C-alpha cells in the first residue's frame, strides 16, 4: 500500500510527536558542533517522514528539506537559537525567505555515566513564509507607512538599514513597498553573503501570532 501524501497538517502533527519522544543518542555523545547535531536530528526526522508518507526528500538543487511542501527544517540549540540560509536577494529581508520554516530548538546534555547524549526539545514551531522576514526592518517600514510616510521616507530607511544591494535595488523595493506593504516578520536576519537567521523572538513568543504555530 502506497504511503499517504504528506501535508502541512501531517508535518506539524509528526513534529509534535517527535518532540515528545525520548531522544537518547550515543552518536551525539561528546559532540559540541551544533551543525553536526542539527544535521543528525534533521535527518532522523526526515527519514521518519519519508518512511511513512509520500514526500520528496530535499536535494542541493531545491535547497529545501521538504520541497513538495516548500518547507526547510532548522534545528538549533537553545543556547544560541540561530542558523544560516542561502542569500537570494535583499527583498527576503522585507518579504520573507519565500518558504516555510519548521524550527526545532533543543537542549543537549551528555550523560557521562552512560556515555550517551540526551536531547530535550524545548521549543518547536512552524513559521509560515509570510512571517520569515526581518522583524526590525518590517516594523520600521510599517511604522513609517502608519505615520503617512511617503516613498522618500521609505527609500531613506532602506539606505539607513544598509540592505545588500545598489540604488536600483533600493528604488525597486521602495516602489514595491508603497504598492504592497510587507507583513511583520518574526526573524532577525543579519546581512551577510549567507543570511544569519536568529529565532529568539519566535522562541520567546508569549502570545499567539497568525502564521506561527507553536508546536511545543
Set out the fold topology.
Elements: E1 4-5, H1 8-20, E2 23-25, H2 34-52, E3 53-54, E4 71-77, E5 82-86, H3 91-95, E6 100-111, E7 116-127, H4 135-146, H5 151-161, H6 167-179, E8 188-190, E9 194-198, H7 200-203, E10 212-214
Report what the structure shows:
With 216 residues, the chain is α+β, with helices and mostly antiparallel strands. It has 2 domains: 4-88 and 98-133 and 189-214; 136-179, no CATH class. The chain contains 7 helices and 10 strands. The strands form 3 sheets. Strands 2, 4, 6, 7 and 10 form a 5-stranded mixed beta sheet that branches. The protein has a 3-stranded antiparallel beta sheet with strand order 5-9-8, with no helix packed on it. It has a two-stranded parallel sheet with strand order 1-3. β6 and β7 (116-127) form a beta hairpin. α5 packs across α6 (167-179). The protein is elongated and about 60 Å long. The mean pLDDT is 92.
Amino acid at each position: 500500500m502506497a504511503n499517504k501524501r504528506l501535508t502541512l497538517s501531517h508535518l506539524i502533527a509528526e513534529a509534535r510527536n517527535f518532540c515528545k519522544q525520548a531522544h537518547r543518542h550515543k552518536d551525539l555523545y561528546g559532540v559540541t558542533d551544533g551543525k553536526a547535531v542539527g544535521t543528525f536530528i534533521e535527518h532522523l526526522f526526515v527519514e521518519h517522514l519519508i518512511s511513512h508518507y509520500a514526500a520528496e526528500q530535499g536535494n542541493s538543487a531545491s535547497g529545501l528539506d521538504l520541497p513538495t511542501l516548500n518547507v526547510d527544517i532548522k534545528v538549533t540549540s537553545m543556547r544560541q537559537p540561530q542558523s544560516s540560509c542561502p542569500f537570494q536577494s535583499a527583498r527576503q529581508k522585507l518579504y520573507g525567505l519565500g518558504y516555510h520554516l519548521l524550527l526545532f530548538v533543543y537542549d543537549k546534555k551528555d550523560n557521562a555515566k552512560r556515555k550517551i547524549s540526551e536531547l530535550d526539545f524545548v521549543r518547536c514551531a512552524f513559521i509560515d513564509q509570510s512571517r520569515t522576514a526581518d522583524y526590525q526592518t518590517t516594523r520600521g517600514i510599517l511604522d513609517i507607512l502608519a505615520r503617512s510616510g511617503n516613498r522618500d521616507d521609505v527609500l531613506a530607511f532602506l539606505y539607513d538599514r544598509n540592505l545588500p544591494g545598489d540604488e536600483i535595488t533600493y528604488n525597486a523595493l521602495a516602489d514595491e513597498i508603497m504598492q504592497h506593504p510587507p507583513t511583520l516578520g518574526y526573524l532577525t536576519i543579519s546581512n551577510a553573503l549567507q543570511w544569519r537567521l536568529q529565532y529568539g523572538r519566535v522562541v520567546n513568543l508569549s502570545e499567539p501570532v497568525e502564521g506561527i504555530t507553536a508546536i511545543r
